[in-house]
Design brief:
The complex is a heterotetramer, with 2 copies of chain A (264 residues) and 2 copies of chain C (334 residues). Chain A is α/β, with parallel strands linked by helices. Chain A has 5 helices and 16 strands. Chain C is 30% helix and 17% strand. The chains are: A alpha/beta (264), C alpha/beta (334). The structure holds flavin-adenine dinucleotide (FAD) (2 copies), flavin mononucleotide (2 copies) and FE2/S2 (inorganic) cluster (2 copies).
Amino acid sequence: MKPIISADVDLLKRRDLKNGYFSLTFGPFARAKQCRPGQFVHIGFKQSSVFYRRAFSIANTNADDKSLEIILKVVGRGSKQMADLRIGDSVNFLGPLGKPFTLPNKKQTPILVAGGVGYPPLFYWANHLIARGWDPKRIVFLYGGQSSPDIVDRARIKRMGVKFIPVTDDGSFGERGRVTSPLVRALAENTYESPMIYSCGPEAMLKAVDQIGTEFETPGELAMEAPMPCGFGICLGCIVPLRAGGTARVCQEGPTFSIGTVKL
Amino acid sequence: MKPIISADVDLLKRRDLKNGYFSLTFGPFARAKQCRPGQFVHIGFKQSSVFYRRAFSIANTNADDKSLEIILKVVGRGSKQMADLRIGDSVNFLGPLGKPFTLPNKKQTPILVAGGVGYPPLFYWANHLIARGWDPKRIVFLYGGQSSPDIVDRARIKRMGVKFIPVTDDGSFGERGRVTSPLVRALAENTYESPMIYSCGPEAMLKAVDQIGTEFETPGELAMEAPMPCGFGICLGCIVPLRAGGTARVCQEGPTFSIGTVKL
Amino acid sequence: MSKANNKPDMLAQKHMITKSKKPKSKTPKTKPDLSVEIAGYRFKNPIWTASGTCGYGEELDTIFDLNRLGGIVTKSITRQPRPGHPTPRCAEESSGMLNAIGLANVGVEKYVAEKLRFLDEYDIGVVVNVAGFGFDEYVEVCAMLADCPRADMIELNISCPNVSTGGIEFGASASDVERIVKAVKKVFPRPIIPKLSPNVTNIAGIAKGAEAGGADAISLINTLIGMSVDIYTRRPGLTNNRGGLSGPAIKPIALSMVNRVYDVVDVPVIGIGGASSAEDVIQFMLCGASAVQLGTALFIQPDLPITVERDLKKYLTSQGLTSITEIIGKIEKY
Amino acid sequence: MSKANNKPDMLAQKHMITKSKKPKSKTPKTKPDLSVEIAGYRFKNPIWTASGTCGYGEELDTIFDLNRLGGIVTKSITRQPRPGHPTPRCAEESSGMLNAIGLANVGVEKYVAEKLRFLDEYDIGVVVNVAGFGFDEYVEVCAMLADCPRADMIELNISCPNVSTGGIEFGASASDVERIVKAVKKVFPRPIIPKLSPNVTNIAGIAKGAEAGGADAISLINTLIGMSVDIYTRRPGLTNNRGGLSGPAIKPIALSMVNRVYDVVDVPVIGIGGASSAEDVIQFMLCGASAVQLGTALFIQPDLPITVERDLKKYLTSQGLTSITEIIGKIEKY
Ligand SMILES: Cc1cc2nc3c(=O)[nH]c(=O)nc-3n(C[C@H](O)[C@H](O)[C@H](O)COP(=O)(O)OP(=O)(O)OC[C@H]3O[C@@H](n4cnc5c(N)ncnc54)[C@H](O)[C@@H]3O)c2cc1C
Ligand SMILES: Cc1cc2nc3c(=O)[nH]c(=O)nc-3n(C[C@H](O)[C@H](O)[C@H](O)COP(=O)(O)OP(=O)(O)OC[C@H]3O[C@@H](n4cnc5c(N)ncnc54)[C@H](O)[C@@H]3O)c2cc1C
Ligand SMILES: Cc1cc2nc3c(=O)[nH]c(=O)nc-3n(C[C@H](O)[C@H](O)[C@H](O)COP(=O)(O)O)c2cc1C
Ligand SMILES: Cc1cc2nc3c(=O)[nH]c(=O)nc-3n(C[C@H](O)[C@H](O)[C@H](O)COP(=O)(O)O)c2cc1C
Ligand code: FES
Ligand code: FES
């Protein structure tokens, strides 16, 4: 059994999360059970105006019906095409791809730092940790966006029972400011025992999180993005430079990288 | 007001006529009222694996709701994509294009000779003639196909009340043989007063009809097909050679040509 | 079409493409200005239609008002009328098409008598594309157009790959291009725009040849030589076996060549190749084009020029620019 | 990797690509035969993967069994390891993409020590693609591969347009190509396949140069030089400014060039450029290719080789053919 498959899946469920965000659930995907948070699927279209596949973080899976959820924001042609899919439409999944987040040890406090459309893998990660026996109350979920509507899917986050700290640039929901502010505060004030950061979001945010983690000597992992022609390591198109020298492929050595690894 | 428009229309109705045939009704199309039998629309897709538009004969129009029907057979990528459309999907119509059939004079007996997917413009034509006051019983509708399922849409044809003469290669519906046999018979036996032929179908059939018309000195018009990059006369890609020398564009000087005009 | 009419200024007046005399005004305008100047003429916008993809203009005018165009480049004309190659002479490809129309055209005489006259009514730049099967034919046809005031400029199709006896040979050699441009410049008093073939090793060299010959502007690219074959009949997709590839497929190649040529010549460059949107037109202009011809895209979206015009204005406004000329060649290379 | 191993016959035995000795059997087979012979070797099918689009094989093998391939052409290697250009080094286009990876690779030493070894386990033809920044580097790298029995053949990337100091210069001149092929033939005892650049005026002439130099086969095409630009940042899509266009967009150009070369050389031709289906592979073979490399299409459909293999068999059966070799060059031109 090859670990990665290319398989057609149908759109089973479509939720409009408003403000250009959509949750799409596809299935059945034979590798749903093998998927791990931090990994992604590379999605190909039948009829398309885009040439590459598009990568989307896995936002959830259901081992029973082998379904897989992604959450996206419409920003260009590919995401538009995704959002325009209708129930029953079929796309091609290539996956699961990439290196998942690594589990914290039981002493550590997972601090999830999501920015905008970086939310999906962290939702999956929180769910996964809880399923693995983590106390939801011990999972810190920082979630930043420009404005209130950018903090999507709140009901589900609350239902998980994690320590949910929303932050918006304009203060229209949660704390006003940058999502990195409560992070810095928590680390500076030693609010949580052995913090371990998991972050996904815009590059500028990841860069800040990387600096913060490095400064406070807090371990963590960043889930990165890059334009991905192939998504599984053969094109060398998605590289990032490493601090230690050389380069790494985001799709293969990533998308999750330890804090301090990538030259951001 | 420009005679030809490019306009987005929605799929309003979709009938599976079996055996790969589909009837698709689109609208609203602002030029529905200006359309005439023999004309076609050139259809463009939003998301597509084909590059050109695809030409489809107008099979009917409804001036009230500005809808337009086409009937197609799935034979390749473009027609497949059409057949896969779902209610509410949108395509782009360019049209109406091409030279319509010309009206017979009141003494003439219109003999419509349809072969396979050449049926749609002739259905429209019969309807149109009836609407213009022609006695349905004086309209002869020869319709040939390989086998019974190729004679689609029979109920509607019967409802029109025309003199319907189906012909199949294998005799599974109507007369056995070629659709040209009853045509030759009718012309040889002078069955109808001042016959005027209108035909659409595969090239081999049109060639036969052209020969028959020429031989029996019976006037008529053939609706032709050709691969059409542009559909409105600017690419010069759809030419046919003329008997009188030179060439004609099927999309512009056609698709309807008088019998004896084109070198078939 | 008397000789007396044959003055750029009068022509320009008549067709509203004014010969620019004074420097561009510096006062900010409310409406973004799409006009561009090429070889001493001002076109109301940089949107032209490409030769062979807009006929002689009549059919396009049944879909949108031709006056909306900056310029029209008519189908290549030759000395004699030509039926072109037998069908199939077009073939559909991924994001593009092959064609080997074979220079079907009405011949220069009928062109001047009928086709050019149709354009008299329009306030657009008329660029007459001329093709030939030999050095002398080019010169002869251009000379015949000298007295036609409506022929604002000539685009010299030295790059048509479809006819084995002509076209490509000129286009592939810098010295041939220089020679032919020099010769037609002598017989045609208005601007000459050689149209370059992309099927060459060194497009910059060819462009320099054209400039040395006296080209007033350079347009590129024509189609790339391509082929297709039906796997069941084993027949090529075109009766001419080979044809020219056009459409979005070739846009990256066209952008690269336009930019190469822009970097080495002083005359204006006119971009052609796969442009299908205002974004594409802007890309060509950033790479150095002063105007952009829409070709194959017209087959897919015939009223594209109207959309492009609107979107170009939107772009300028969004970028805080007042004139489209501000973007010409403004790519910021690494 | 001792010298003793370095015999075609032993190699062939080990990797099941048998050196063909006897003429093809004429008895009709039930199973269609996809095997092809190139430069004295028999590949189990004509489906290869193209250099730079399949890495060194490891990743592809996580998706399908590499053994299903006829051959693999590994990513260009150079004398020294190279990080390549900074990102962005790929850009999406209509039916294709631009890349200027910049010959990122592990260098020949690590390649031989690690990457080539991985392929030891597979019964496929291994074609090592070699690039260089000068005449001497090509020769040096090829010489270092002479003693690696797993390097069944070398594909010489004389056509990489991305690195301004090398690549394109060789590929654009017939005499340069002849010279470089001659030189590497002296140091590498197995077949040499020069890979031609499409960015030339006369591909047939270049191919003849390669053949004169002793090429055992000729592969083409590499990418076409292209460019893109972001209209908001005004930055090129690639840090290298220009890159190579690949994908379905270039297939018609590739088919035409393959056919041109097939018509003028006697050695086998290997087709590359936009192939994305069995139909495409058949088109290349009808135009003269003895094998076809799948490139960019692997990014879109990584298990494509499996589908192509199945569909090639279906095609042969539907056409009443027993061997894929029966279609090579069998286009019926007008
Ligand atoms: C490993 C990985 C995981 C990803 N997970 C998700 C996910 O869970 N949800 C999701 O919505 N997207 C995700 N993306 C991004 C996604 O793959 C697409 O890049 C994104 O949807 C834009 O594609 P497009 O075709 O719509 O835009 P394009 O047409 O390619 O680009 C349009 C414009 O949007 C900009 N743009 C590109 N990507 C983004 C982005 N991510 N955010 C904002 N602007 C952008 C481009 O710069 C461009 O200007 C992921 C990417 C990777 C590599
Ligand atoms: C003026 C005009 C009117 C038309 N009206 C109709 C209509 O009313 N209904 C309709 O179904 N089609 C009609 N067509 C044909 C239609 O435009 C397409 O050519 C047809 O649907 C095939 O396109 P495709 O993309 O599916 O096939 P492609 O992928 O282009 O071709 C697939 C295969 O089908 C073959 N093929 C192409 N056209 C036909 C055809 N018409 N019949 C059988 N085989 C074909 C091709 O040779 C090829 O082998 C009309 C064409 C023209 C020019
Ligand atoms: C059907 C067709 C016919 C063409 N005829 C001519 C021609 O007569 N003369 C000419 O110079 N170019 C001709 N061209 C080339 C176009 O003018 C243009 O250079 C080329 O198609 C690339 O632009 P595009 O991709 O926007 O179409 C033709 C192109 C097409 C598609
Ligand atoms: C990302 C990428 C990297 C490539 N790297 C190389 C390379 O290292 N050496 C080489 O000879 N060709 C390289 N090529 C060219 C391909 O091998 C092939 O010739 C070209 O892409 C055309 O084929 P395609 O359209 O099927 O991809 C590369 C192509 C791509 C897309
Ligand atoms: S996307 Fe191709 S190597 Fe990462
Ligand atoms: S389809 Fe273009 S001229 Fe008829």
